[in-house]
Amino acid sequence: MSAAIIDRDAWLAAIGEAVVPDDPNALTSRELGEMLGLERTATQRRIKELLQAKKIEVVSKRVTGSSGAAARVPAYRLIPKVKGKR
To answer: Are residues 74 and 44 in contact, defined by beta-carbon separation less than 8 angstroms?
Structure first.
């Protein structure tokens, strides 16, 4: 059985389409917990509930750690309500 050969440009295009740009306005779980005054476990529970209700979506955000190194971490943003829908 011969495998179909996909060229480099097709691979690069597919990778480019799959990458979601970082959202600097999204909140990490730590930031969300601090904003809401919740402990880590309660924050994770709220995030899970909001994801299941499709009120938030997972994106990524670049943050700088205590060592000064930048890292891409999961973050959350509200899904905007569509006008006319309840």
So the answer is: no
57 within 8 A of 77, measured Cβ to Cβ: yes
Q: How far apart are CA 42 and CA 52, in angstroms?
A: 15
SS3 assignment, position 52: helix
Dump pLDDT digits (tens) for 7-49.
Answer: 888 888 888 777 777 898 999 999 999 999 999 999 999 999 9
- The C-alpha atoms of residue 2 and residue 4 are separated, in whole angstroms, by 6
Domains (range + CATH), the chain: 23-78 (1.10.10)
How much is the pTM? 0.69
Alpha-carbon Rg for the chain, nearest whole angstrom, is 18
Q: Where do runs of H (alpha helix) occur along the chain?
A: 8-18, 29-36, 40-52
